[in-house]
């Protein structure tokens, strides 16, 4: 897959651009607002636009079953078996005329008796072509020169559901459909005079077609990657994305509000994606509700659909197209990403070792969903033994120490009350004691001893440092933490103690407090304390 850029204008504008009643006629927030309950708020969309996060995939056996259930793929398998022991074809490898109606009936595309509709025969020919492309049937000639097709070697293992064979065949089929979708989108509308055009004009036309094909391919690749990312971040059941939102992620530069021109670009991208996504839906990569054709009705005097002062409801917004990437689609796109050198991990990849390996990997990995990795690791483990392993791995004064301890607490929450005996064993540990006490208190324990002053202050620094590491200094979150600091009425005294704490992140924490604290006097004391801590170190 081609690398994706934040803004794509390749599918917008230009002679012959389609104008219709689409998001260009609406406020973008209407499209976002109608699906706010689906978890696609602005922050999520920004995150989804810059990450290739880990995804969850079913087992290969389940994915293979889903692939065999895709109608077009199943049709290809059925026709390949129908070819046994051999079946006559024409010189191009297509079904001969007298076999096309029986093939359509075999696939259930036409009634058993009576006339077979032309579109049913066309669909059967498409399925036969796919079977040939996948080598489910092999073409050859007899000694008499007759063109025939016979089942290929992959047919039997595919029919038996061998996961490796089925998924390899399906991925090949998906790649073929993806290429055909791009080709169809990039073909110009012919005027029947191409053969009479001068050679130089013909070359120019081929160049334009190739350029249009490259633009369509890049647009589709970008759209699929965005779908992959938003699906990974979505809550279960909320993976559906409005086509207008998908187009906006491709068009609107990060941090900008869409103006009238960008809204027009969104419309053009939607129109370009609509048929390509429909083609991919045939192979089960995605579920797609296309743009309502009535939105293109531009009769004079007709009011634009769904335009008004109130935000669109979900049904109105759905008329502009809805797309959901299937698990099979996630599998396919991930394979394409891996082939192109992308880092596209699976959820659970980091949870295959011991606790030390888990916490280290989560801390050091850029593409990670920490809670998911912790959930995979803790699932099915005996709470006390797992908690002891986690607590031991959380110790350390290295750069990632605070983050490991924060992750450890999150894992303890997943293990639940059963891990309490292991947590009580570290109450006097200088690095873990404060967090252990906080965890026990949160669990409802009433006999938790109060930490001594040194432990309490060290834990304040460690907890704040973990947030600095985890959120990259997210100002809003850090301000919330700052308001909860136990400064009381003696700011000078409290910061006077804090700067003496022997912690590798003391200076960083004090500088962050000094920069972000809303009260000027407290911010000033924090900056003074940071200066003293820096001088000490």
Structure description:
This protein is 55% helix and 4% strand. The protein is mainly α. It has 3 domains: 1-345, no CATH class; 347-451; 452-537, no CATH class.
Kindly estimate the percentage of residues that lie in beta strands according to DSSP: under 5%
If you average the pLDDT, what whole number results?
A: 85
Strand order of the largest sheet: 1-3-2
What count of helical segments does DSSP give? Answer: 24
Rg (C-alpha, Å)? 30 Å
Return the structural class: mainly alpha
Cα(first) to Cα(last) distance is 49 Å
Task: Give helix % range.
Answer: 55-70%
Return the string of H and E elements: HHHHEHHEEHHHEHHEHEHHHHHHHHHHHH
Total discrete domains: 3
What does the largest sheet look like? 3 strands, antiparallel
Residue runs with pLDDT of under 50 for 5 or more positions: 2-25, 28-42, 44-50, 190-195, 298-310
- Structural shape: elongated
């Amino acid at each position: 897959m081609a690398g994706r850029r934040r803004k794509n204008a390749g599918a917008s504008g230009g002679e012959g651009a389609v104008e219709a009643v689409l998001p260009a006629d609406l406020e973008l927030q209407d499209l976002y607002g109608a699906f706010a309950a689906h978890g696609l708020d602005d922050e999520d969309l920004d995150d989804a636009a810059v990450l290739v996060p880990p995804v969850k995939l079913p087992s290969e056996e389940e994915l293979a079953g889903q692939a065999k259930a895709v109608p077009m793929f199943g049709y290809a398998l059925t026709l390949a078996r129908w070819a046994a022991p051999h079946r006559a074809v024409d010189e191009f490898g297509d079904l001969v005329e007298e076999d096309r109606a029986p093939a359509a009936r075999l696939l259930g595309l036409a009634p058993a008796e009576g006339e077979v509709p032309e579109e049913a025969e066309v669909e059967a020919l498409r399925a036969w072509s796919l079977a040939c492309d996948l080598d489910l049937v092999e073409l050859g000639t007899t000694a008499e020169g007759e063109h025939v097709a016979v089942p290929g070697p992959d047919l039997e293992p595919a029919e038996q559901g061998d996961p490796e064979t089925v998924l390899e065949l399906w991925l090949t089929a998906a790649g073929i459909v993806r290429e055909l979708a791009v080709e169809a989108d990039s073909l110009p509308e012919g005027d029947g005079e191409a053969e009479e055009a001068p050679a130089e004009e013909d070359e120019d036309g081929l160049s334009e077609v190739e350029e249009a094909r490259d633009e369509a391919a890049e647009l589709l690749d970008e759209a699929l990657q965005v779908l992959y990312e938003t699906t990974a971040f979505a809550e279960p059941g909320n993976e559906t994305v409005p086509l207008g939102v998908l187009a906006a992620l491709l068009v609107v530069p990060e941090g900008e509000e869409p103006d009238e021109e960008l809204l027009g670009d969104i419309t053009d991208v939607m129109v370009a994606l609509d048929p390509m996504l429909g083609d991919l839906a045939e192979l089960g990569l995605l579920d797609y509700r296309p743009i309502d054709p009535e939105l293109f009705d531009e009769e004079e005097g007709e009011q634009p659909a769904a335009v008004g002062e109130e935000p669109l409801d979900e049904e109105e917004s759905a008329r502009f197209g809805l797309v959901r990437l299937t698990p099979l689609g996630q599998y396919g796109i991930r394979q394409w990403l891996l082939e192109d050198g992308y880092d596209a991990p699976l959820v659970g990849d980091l949870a295959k070792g011991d606790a030390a390996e888990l916490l280290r990997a989560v801390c050091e990995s850029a593409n990670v969903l920490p809670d998911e990795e912790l959930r995979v690791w803790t699932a099915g483990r005996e709470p006390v033994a797992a908690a002891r392993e986690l607590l031991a791995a959380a110790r350390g004064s290295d750069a990632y120490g605070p983050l490991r301890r924060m992750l450890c607490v999150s894992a303890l929450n997943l293990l639940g009350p059963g891990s309490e005996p292991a947590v009580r064993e570290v109450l006097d540990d200088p690095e873990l004691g404060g967090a252990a006490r906080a965890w026990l208190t949160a669990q409802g324990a009433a006999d938790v001893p109060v930490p001594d002053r040194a432990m309490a202050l060290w834990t304040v620094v460690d907890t704040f440092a973990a947030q600095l590491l985890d959120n990259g200094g997210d100002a809003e979150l850090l301000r919330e933490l700052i308001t909860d600091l136990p400064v009381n009425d003696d700011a000078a005294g409290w910061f006077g103690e804090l700067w003496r704490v022997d912690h590798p992140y003391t200076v960083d924490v004090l500088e962050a407090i000094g920069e972000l604290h809303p009260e000027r006097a407290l911010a000033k004391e924090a900056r003074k304390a940071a200066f003293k801590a820096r001088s000490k170190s």
